[in-house]
What we know:
Layout: H1 11-21, E1 23-27, H2 32-44, E2 49-53, H3 59-70, E3 75-79, H4 84-93, E4 97-99, H5 105-113, E5 117-121, H6 124-133, E6 137-140, H7 147-155, E7 163-166, H8 174-179, E8 184-187, H9 189-192, H10 201-217
Parallel strand pairs: 1-2, 1-8, 2-3, 3-4, 4-5, 5-6, 6-7, 7-8
Helix pairs in contact: 2-3, 2-10, 4-5
Amino acid sequence: MGTDGTKAFSSTTFVDELSAARVMAIIRGKHPGAAEDAAVALLEEGVRFVEVALTTPSALEVIRRVRAVVGPDVRLGAGTVLTAADVDAAVAAGADFVVTPAVAPSVAAAAERGVPCAAGAFTATEAHEAHVAGAAVVKLFPASLGGPSYLRALRDPFPDIPFMAVGGVDVDAAPLYLSAGAVAVGVGGPLVGDAASGGDLAALRERARSYVELAGTAS
């Protein structure tokens, strides 16, 4: 249940909306206030999915504050979610979905609770395990190690698994992953830069507009 008493949106809706949005921003910063400002700026510029990594100081409070500012109609998630307790805490803070770096206990816990999860995996075995555990999306991470051709090869035996490419996906590489079959790309450094640690918000907004434009033109 979310902070407003409503159930987290379904995994099917998560996949459908993420497939339409095409881009998920990843906030991993050093300062809670800067992380909050960065998340709000991204959402204001039209990025429809934002993940706040739990490695960010006071990440749950950042999620609460961002949710209070932007309201219930944006998709705000928690990243680096590893345990069942992390899932519960993230949803209580206002997260719509959770993201993991690996096939962790949090994947099955999220599925049991009806919380959409993007589960980190790299190999075919990990992708299969994540899917079986109940992940709505498999996060290919780090995508840059294999590139778009590796994603395309993974999709051959797993055409029904929605993949999101994460890790080293800059604005030039993003269309290649989308063309290779990713439903979306997850972007941290190339999009957020140092904004979540006190860096330039104006530059962040400019990068955000580039990714939003890319999402609108991706086939």
